[in-house]
C-alpha cells in the first residue's frame, strides 16, 4: 500500500468527519479532520490547471465557486473570514486534481469504498440498536417518525456507492465473490428501508431494477420485474409500522399540494432571500451557524420550516451561485454522453442518484456525499482519458 493509497483512505474518513461521530465534533479529532482536509485541498491546488476535457471544467467551476463563497458570505451578510474554516469540507472537490496527478488505481478506489460501505452498515446497526444515545450524527435526526425510531445515519455517500459497486460485481463475469456482493446489496436494501427516507428507497430500488434488467433475456426481465412488484406489494400491505408510517407521510405530503413546505421554501429562497444582484450570480456564501448569517438561516427553519438543506439544488445556487449550478449540469449531461465499460456502470448510477434527488436533498452539497462524488468523477475521468487514448491510437 503506497502513500497515495493511505492518504486517500484517511482522507475519506476525515472528510466524513468520522461519520459525524460525536467524539469528533469538538477537540483534537475535529481539528485533525479539518487539518487533513485542508492539507488535501492545499496539495491539490498546484494541479488545478493541468488537465482538461471530460469532467474537468465542471469540477473547476464548482471548486472555484466554493472558494469565492468565502468572500461572498462576507460581502453579502458580513460573515467574517474567521468563519471561513466552515467551508473546508465543501471545498474537497479540489482533491479531484490531486487524484488525477497521482493516479490512484480505480480498483484501489473501489476497495476503499467497499471497506467504508461495510463499516457504514456495522456502525448503523450499532447506532440503530442504541438509539437512546447519539454516537453518530445529531440528536434531531433520532426521533420516532413514520412508525420507527428514524436513524438517518451520516456519511451515506460511500454507502450508496458501495451498493452500486456491489451490484456491478454481482453481474460481472470475472468476479469470484458474487454471493458476498449480493448479500451486501440485499442487506443494504434493509438498511435503507430502516432509515425510512422515501426518495432514497425509491432511487436505490430503481437503480437495482435498471441494473439487473439491463443485460438479461426477456424471461429473466419479467421474472425480476415480478419479483420487485411482489416484494413492493407485500411490503406496502404488510401492515408493519414502517410501511404504515411511509404511507401516512406520503398521503400527508400529497394533501398539501402547492402549499408543500419544500415548494414554499424553494420559492422564498429563490425570490426573496438574496439581497443583491452580485450574490444572485456568485451566491450568498456558505453560512457558519455561529454567525448572524447562519443564525438567520436557522431562524427561517425553526419559524417557518424553510430549511435550506431541504431544497436541494436551490441550496447549491443560494450558497455557491450560478457557476456551481452550471458545473453540476455539465456533470449530469456528461454522465449520459460519456460511455464507460459495463463493469463501471456504478459511476453512472451514483451520478444519476444525486441527479434524481437533487430537488429535495442536500446530496449535491453535503460533506456526507462530496468526497464520494470526487471519487466517482475521478474514476470516470480516468476511464474517459483511457478511452480517448485508445481511440487516438486506433485512428493512428
Automatic annotation (TrEMBL):
Locate the transmembrane regions by residue number: 31-49, 56-75, 87-106, 113-136, 148-167, 179-198, 218-236, 304-331, 351-380
Keyword hit for Transcription: no
Keywords of this entry: Membrane, Transmembrane, Transmembrane helix
Region forming the signal peptide: none
The domain of life for this entry's organism is Bacteria
Protein name stated in the entry = Uncharacterized protein
Amino acid at each position: 500500500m503506497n502513500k497515495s493509497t493511505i492518504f486517500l483512505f484517511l482522507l475519506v474518513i476525515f472528510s466524513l468527519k468520522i461519520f459525524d461521530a460525536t467524539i469528533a465534533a469538538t477537540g483534537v479529532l475535529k481539528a485533525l479532520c479539518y487539518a487533513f482536509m485542508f492539507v488535501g485541498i492545499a496539495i491539490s491546488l498546484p494541479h488545478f490547471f493541468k488537465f482538461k476535457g471530460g469532467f474537468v471544467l465542471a469540477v473547476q467551476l464548482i471548486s472555484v465557486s466554493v472558494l469565492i463563497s468565502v468572500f461572498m458570505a462576507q460581502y453579502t451578510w458580513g460573515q467574517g473570514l474567521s468563519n471561513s474554516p466552515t467551508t473546508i469540507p465543501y471545498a474537497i472537490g479540489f482533491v479531484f486534481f490531486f487524484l488525477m496527478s497521482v493516479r490512484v488505481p480505480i480498483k484501489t478506489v473501489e476497495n476503499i469504498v467497499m471497506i467504508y460501505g461495510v463499516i457504514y452498515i456495522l456502525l448503523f446497526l450499532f447506532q440503530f440498536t442504541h438509539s437512546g444515545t447519539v454516537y453518530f450524527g445529531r440528536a434531531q435526526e433520532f426521533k420516532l417518525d413514520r412508525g420507527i425510531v428514524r436513524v438517518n445515519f451520516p456519511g451515506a455517500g460511500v454507502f450508496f456507492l458501495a451498493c452500486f459497486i456491489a451490484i456491478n460485481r454481482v453481474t460481472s463475469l470475472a468476479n469470484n465473490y458474487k454471493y458476498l456482493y449480493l448479500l451486501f446489496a440485499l442487506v443494504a436494501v434493509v438498511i435503507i428501508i430502516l432509515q425510512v427516507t422515501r426518495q432514497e428507497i425509491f432511487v436505490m430500488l430503481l437503480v437495482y431494477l435498471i441494473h439487473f434488467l439491463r443485460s438479461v433475456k426477456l424471461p429473466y426481465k419479467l421474472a425480476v420485474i415480478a419479483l420487485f412488484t411482489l416484494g413492493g406489494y407485500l411490503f406496502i400491505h404488510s401492515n408493519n409500522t414502517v410501511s404504515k408510517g411511509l404511507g401516512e407521510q406520503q398521503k400527508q405530503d400529497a394533501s398539501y399540494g402547492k402549499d408543500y413546505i419544500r415548494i414554499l421554501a424553494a420559492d422564498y429562497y429563490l425570490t426573496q432571500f438574496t439581497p443583491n444582484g452580485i450574490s444572485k450570480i456568485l451566491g450568498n456564501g456558505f453560512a457558519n451557524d455561529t454567525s448572524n448569517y447562519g443564525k438567520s438561516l436557522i431562524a427561517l427553519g425553526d419559524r417557518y420550516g424553510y430549511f435550506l438543506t431541504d431544497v436541494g439544488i436551490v441550496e447549491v445556487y443560494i450558497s455557491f451561485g450560478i457557476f456551481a449550478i452550471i458545473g453540476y449540469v455539465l456533470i449530469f449531461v456528461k454522465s449520459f454522453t460519456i460511455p464507460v465499460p459495463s463493469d463501471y456502470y456504478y459511476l453512472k448510477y451514483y451520478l444519476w442518484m444525486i441527479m434524481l434527488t437533487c430537488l429535495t436533498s442536500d446530496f449535491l452539497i453535503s460533506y456526507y456525499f462530496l468526497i464520494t462524488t470526487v471519487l466517482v468523477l475521478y474514476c470516470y475521468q480516468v476511464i474517459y482519458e483511457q478511452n480517448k487514448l485508445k481511440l487516438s491510437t486506433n485512428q493512428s
